[in-house]
């Protein structure tokens, strides 16, 4: 049973992966499930990467809270492009291979996982079982029996700490001294920030100093005790002011496992003056009783703002909902405001002109005329005071609810707390209704065979095709499926097994491995195969006899329960369909039913149609995989073997080839020893991308090493390389090249000699942040026969960095904007004090973030740094 739900959509850009990781981490930690957070974040990262990077579509991530487990679903909207997958029992790739890693991790880390398809999208999900946890909730809930109540000390201590507007502790009660070991005399006058282990509850970007300035804040952090240990606490911070008007903050702190003490809201007392205010409801949990059904979004939102206005006796109210990308809030309902102007108006959440301040935390504005622009939506409406609270679904901001009045000073922290309780109660219903509304817009369907054809046409990888064949048949056509493949002049081999219950897959694999595979009969149509059910029943019978001490007396009884379950799973009818492509049987599709079940004729006819399409897709994938493996093997031979260790110099390289499946492109680099005490380095760019350009990079890299080790100077090396390129005739290509020689010195510096042949100029970063070009540009290679080049000599002092890049970095574009040489220099100026690896990584991030589209050009970054000498 699902008890809570959180969902978010992430656009198909690289930075969405990090955002999705943060969303899942914040949601699960908000639920208190820290034990499974790390596994969930790792799996989400892999699956979202497959969706937004490889499939190239937006990714919908949904976290489902169940009674004993957490389920995370990642959905993309392009079923023609599947994620990499392989049979985890027969790894066919090297450990470094990227493909299939996501589902391999699911298999290794998740309790359960699976892949589901619809006509419009593909969904990969995994489930993580939760450890036994003590009872206790984050908000008011039903009464619990005594045995289920959370454990606490015989005396529950609530530390009361008061700090002034500078964060200095002014009050420290006895419970605080008991909890943390510091006496009031020892701690008064010190900063609470010095004792706090921040950050607080993940998902809130405020530090402790910012939390003190808010009208109200709740969350988890740690307080360092007198013994030096950090005690996890749950805190409630309330902003107050004394009779003199000076602001301060009162912090109520309890142990983290006693957080329900502060989180359980109490009912607000009725007015003590004997009067009853208009529309005021003294019980915040009854505010929204009688609201419309959750799927009636407009009615639900309108009823919400009307009840909120009446609850706080306001003159107006409005409700904002987060947009799909959650970067803006959108007005969806209002009362007492000019609705024609306000409806669907948008404001940024975090930053920008007219941003909605304090959207993630409750806020009270006593007089809007004193803070112009704090709430842009109310400009010109005559409203003076306002209270706003966030709508959150398990830690994720989904909207904001505000109540305003024409008179100033109408609202306080008490009203903010009451409105927050009401917002917490309605937030899940609002989010559910919003998702239902979105789902109506996305509905559509295609026939099974049309969907299957599109999915199979969307992949050219063998293991993906095998997985798709099985996933399309289970559970739509059969309860379980096995795919056999047949290589040329080979026997059938079990390649993939799937069951609608993942827990039974291993048992079926073990059973089929003991059964001779079906014969590869090319005759079209399904034929009955009794071997699996016969073997299952026979094994179950022998196991039952052994468990009773009968038969095979010398052999131990092995799991009769498991064997009987497997027998029930495959004990029904099993059929085999040949996979025929280009007049050859390349495999067999086996479909099975559980005990006492048979296939309908309509299902078998549908499976036969599917097998014909699947056979062609599998053969295409086989041919493509063979050619891809050959191409990748040849490409890897063009890459340098590795970076050498240069005494006294840090070296780091970042290399990315443009184009799917390309490991080497037109950009190249190399760092290699020439002779004792001398190292050569090069970074170049061949005109064009892809295999043709890669062929020239291989020629250039090997020629550089050979010529340099023969003792030629830098200009001579490049002049001879120029002649070799021109000798290629019609296959030759233009080439820009930066070549240099490096001599580390005994005083900690390094001497460099550089020749820059038409390449982007190398940049030198000094410890004071100064950036300047370290060479002059000279003619590029592969154009003219007679080149006259010269080398330039300079010295790298300790702390200096030399950055060399290809034009894939400087020519990174976003519309009409380009990063350029000046932009690269600005980024490099921020890298003072960083290692060579950190410099290269920062440049790479800056290039990737400059534009949302994937890079269309090869990119190479070479960073060298002379470390500063340690002080004696």
UniProtKB/TrEMBL annotation:
Disordered, as annotated region: 262-281
GO MF terms, alphabetically ordered: phosphatase activity
Source superkingdom: Bacteria
Record-linked InterPro entries: Bact_Sigma-Reg, GAF, GAF-like_dom_sf, HATPase_C_sf, HATPase_dom, PAS, PAS-like_dom_sf, PAS_fold
Keywords: Hydrolase
NCBIfam families per record: sensory_box
PANTHER family per the UniProt record, alphabetical: STAGE II SPORULATION PROTEIN E (PTHR43156:SF2), STAGE II SPORULATION PROTEIN E-RELATED (PTHR43156)
Protein's name according to its UniProt entry: GAF domain-containing protein
């Amino acid at each position: 049973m699902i008890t809570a739900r959180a969902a978010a959509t992430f656009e198909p850009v690289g930075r969405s992966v990090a955002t999705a990781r943060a969303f899942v981490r914040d949601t699960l930690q908000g639920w208190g499930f820290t034990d499974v957070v790390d596994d969930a974040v790792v799996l989400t990262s892999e699956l979202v990467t497959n969706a937004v990077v490889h499939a190239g579509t937006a990714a919908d991530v949904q976290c489902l809270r169940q009674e004993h487990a957490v389920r995370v679903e990642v959905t993309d909207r392009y079923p023609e492009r599947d994620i990499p997958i392989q049979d985890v029992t027969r790894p066919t790739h090297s450990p470094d291979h990227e493909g299939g890693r996501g589902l391999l991790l699911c298999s290794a880390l998740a309790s359960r996982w699976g892949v589901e398809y619809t006509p419009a999208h593909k969904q990969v999900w995994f489930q993580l079982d939760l450890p036994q946890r003590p009872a206790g909730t984050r908000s008011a809930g039903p009464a619990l029996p005594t045995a289920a109540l959370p454990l606490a000390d015989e005396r529950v201590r609530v530390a009361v700490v008061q700090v002034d507007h500078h964060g200095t502790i002014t009050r420290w009660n006895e419970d605080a001294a008991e909890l943390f070991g510091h006496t009031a005399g020892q701690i008064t006058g010190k900063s609470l920030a010095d004792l706090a282990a921040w950050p607080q509850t993940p998902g809130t970007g405020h530090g402790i100093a910012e939390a003190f300035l808010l009208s109200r804040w709740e969350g988890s952090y740690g307080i360092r005790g007198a013994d030096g240990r950090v005690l996890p606490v749950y805190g409630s911070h309330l902003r107050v002011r004394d009779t003199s008007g000076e602001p301060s903050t009162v912090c109520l702190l309890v142990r983290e496992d006693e957080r329900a003490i502060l989180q359980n809201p109490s009912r607000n007392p009725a007015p003590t003056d004997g009067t009853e205010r208009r529309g005021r409801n003294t019980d915040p949990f009854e505010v929204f009783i009688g609201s419309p059904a959750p799927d009636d979004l407009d009615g639900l939102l309108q009823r919400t703002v009307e009840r909120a206005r009446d609850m706080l006796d306001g003159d107006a109210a409005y409700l904002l909902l987060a947009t799909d990308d959650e970067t803006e809030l959108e007005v969806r309902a209002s009362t007492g405001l000019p609705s024609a102007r306000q409806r669907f108006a948008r404001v940024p959440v975090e930053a920008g002109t007219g941003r909605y301040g304090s959207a993630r935390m409750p806020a009270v504005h006593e007089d809007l005329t004193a803070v112009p622009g704090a709430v842009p939506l109310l400009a010109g409406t005559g409203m003076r005071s306002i209270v706003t609270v966030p709508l959150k679904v398990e830690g994720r901001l989904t909207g904001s609810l505000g109540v305003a009045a024409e008179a100033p000073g109408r609202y306080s922290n008490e009203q903010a707390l009451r409105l927050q309780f009401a917002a917490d109660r309605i937030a899940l219903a609002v989010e559910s209704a919003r998702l239902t509304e979105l789902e109506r817009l996305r509905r559509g369907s295609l026939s099974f065979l049309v969907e299957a054809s599109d999915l199979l046409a969307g992949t050219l990888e063998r293991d993906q095709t095998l997985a798709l064949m099985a996933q399309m048949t289970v559970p739509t056509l059969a309860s379980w499926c096995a795919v056999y493949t047949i290589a040329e002049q080979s026997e059938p081999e079990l390649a993939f097994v799937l069951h609608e219950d993942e827990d039974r897959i291993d048992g079926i694999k073990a059973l089929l491995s003991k059964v001779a595979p079906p014969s590869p009969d090319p005759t079209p149509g399904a034929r009955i195969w009794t071997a699996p059910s016969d073997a299952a029943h026979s094994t179950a019978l022998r196991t039952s006899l052994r468990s009773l001490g009968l038969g095979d007396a010398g052999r131990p009884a092995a799991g009769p329960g498991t064997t009987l379950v497997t027998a029930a799973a495959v004990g029904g009818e099993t059929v085999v369909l040949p996979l025929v492509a280009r007049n050859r049987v390349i495999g067999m599709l086996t479909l099975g039913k559980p005990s006492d079940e048979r296939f309908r004729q309509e299902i078998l006819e549908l499976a036969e149609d599917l097998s014909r399409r699947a056979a062609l897709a599998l053969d295409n994938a086989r041919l493509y995989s063979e050619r891809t493996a050959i191409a990748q093997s040849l490409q890897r031979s063009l890459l340098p073997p590795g970076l050498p260790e240069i005494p006294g110099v840090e070296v780091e390289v970042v290399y990315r080839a443009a184009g799917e499946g390309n490991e080497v492109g037109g950009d190249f680099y190399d760092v290699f020893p020439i002779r004792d005490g001398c190292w050569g380095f090069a970074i170049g760019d061949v005109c064009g991308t892809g295999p043709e350009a890669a062929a020239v990079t291989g020629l250039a890299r090997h020629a550089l090493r050979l010529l340099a080790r023969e003792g030629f100077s830098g200009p001579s090396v490049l002049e001879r390389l120029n002649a070799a390129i021109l000798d290629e005739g019609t296959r030759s290509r233009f080439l820009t090249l930066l070549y240099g020689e490096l001599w580390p010195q005994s005083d900690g510096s390094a001497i460099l000699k550089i020749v820059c042949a038409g390449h982007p100029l190398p940049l030198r970063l000094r410890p004071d942040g100064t950036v300047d070009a370290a060479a002059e540009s000279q003619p590029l290679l592969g154009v003219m026969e007679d080149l006259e080049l010269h080398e330039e000599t300079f010295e790298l002092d300790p702390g200096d960095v030399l950055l060399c890049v290809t034009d894939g970095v400087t020519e990174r574009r976003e519309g009409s904007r380009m990063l350029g040489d000046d932009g690269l220099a600005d980024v490099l100026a921020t890298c003072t004090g960083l290692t060579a690896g950190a410099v290269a990584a920062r440049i790479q991030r800056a290039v990737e973030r400059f534009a949302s589209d994937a890079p269309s050009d090869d990119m190479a970054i070479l960073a060298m740094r002379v470390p500063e000498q340690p002080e004696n």
